[in-house]
Design goal:
It contains two helices and five strands, in the order E-E-E-E-H-E-H. It starts with 12 loop residues before the first strand and ends with a helix. About 15% of the residues lie in helices and about 20% in strands. It is an alpha+beta fold. It has one domain: Herpes Virus-1. The strands form two sheets. A three-stranded antiparallel beta sheet has the order 4-3-5. A two-stranded antiparallel ribbon has the order 1-2. This is TRAF-like protein. It comes from Artemisia annua. InterPro entries: Sina-like_RING, SINL_plant, Znf_RING, Znf_RING/FYVE/PHD. Keywords: Metal-binding, Zinc, Zinc-finger.
């Protein structure tokens, strides 16, 4: 599951292109979109998400006592593998 639509600004993505093999290439105009929204440091795996799709880095999940600061849902149990793949490319 990707982050909820409110987490990634719509105008932060300028171009999405698919090549012949089906791989996607995405260009971000705002590189901060790949930062943890809590500590503002670049995201590193593991990245977790709450049930509403808000993301946080591993250390921040512990700092907020596994409660999403955006919606108060539990966070730190469900990995966000899609974002992890993006940050590992």
């Amino acid at each position: 599951m990707l982050p909820a639509s409110g987490d990634v600004a719509e105008n932060s993505v300028t171009d999405v292109v698919s090549n012949a093999s089906g791989a996607l290439s995405v260009v971000f105009t705002d590189p901060d979109v790949l930062d943890c929204p809590i500590c503002l440091e670049p995201l590193r795996a593991p990245v977790f998400q709450c049930d509403n799709g808000h993301i946080a880095c591993n250390s921040c999940c512990s700092k907020v006592k596994r409660k999403c600061p955006s919606c108060c849902m539990p966070i730190g149990y469900n990995r966000c593998r899609a974002i992890e793949k993006v940050i590992h490319v």
